[in-house]
Amino acid sequence: MGSVIFDFDSTLVPCETLEELCKQALADDPEGRRELERITAAGMDGSMSFEESLRTRLAIARPTRNDVIALGKRLAVAPTEGARELVRELQAGGHEVWIVSGGFRDLLLEVGGALSIPPARIHGVACHWAPDGALVDVDPANGFVASKEAGLTRLDVALAAPAVGVGDGATDLALRKAGFVQQFVAYTEHARRPGVVADADFEAATMGALREILATLLP
Q1: Distances in Å between the alpha carbon of 131 and those of 24, 66, 136?
Q2: Which CATH number is 3-217 given?
Q3: What is the residue-wise DSSP string for 159-186?
Q4: What single DSSP character describes residue 141?
Q5: What is the pLDDT of residue 87?
Q6: Could you give the CA distance from residue 175 to residue 64 in angstroms, rounded to a whole number?
Q7: Domain ranges of the chain
Q8: What is the pLDDT of residues 105-131, one digit of tens each?
Q9: How far apart are CA 194 and CA 134, in angstroms?
Q10: Which stretches of 4-104 are DSSP H helices?
Q11: Which parts of the chain register pLDDT below 50?
């Protein structure tokens, strides 16, 4: 038995969810959307820290809880092609499947539930919402505001070995460098970042290719 730690954005789903949420808020502001895309790219390629990228994007556009839940419900019925079947196969084989993301946990739970991933294995940024659903602030107490490795360290989770990380960004690759996973697969169907691919152990451009790689890594 082993573990597969999936990134969420541009991996289990075909978009960057915070970018999608902010684009909705900036529908009439093309300059704001371009700046948002630049900041997202900087956070994903490692040239800006994740926390700085997150807080900067939220300063540009503040999504509401209704926006977050609505996008989660939409993506729950349209994850990356083949993701639902792969998660089912991994769990049927006795492997743990986790989602570890810099996205909003409220949204992750919507999609993770549709993929039958237990809530205890879904981790991301927690938010404080006002009674009317407005975003008050992100919660620094869970650690995922800073980084994925900081969040997992604070949770003190025990991942079944061997543990394999799957994702598209530098924040995902960092889990291998921190020792949380022993192998890292760069998932490039939706976004291919050369610096991440160069340091990855494997590259998969589809869920089918990922399935074949995981079959060689997990007992």
Answers
A1: 21, 11, 10
A2: 3.40.50.1000
A3: PPSSEEEEESSHHHHHHHHTTS-SEEEE
A4: G
A5: 98
A6: 30
A7: 3-217
A8: 999 999 999 999 999 999 999 999 999
A9: 37
A10: 17-25, 30-45, 50-60, 65-76, 83-92
A11: none
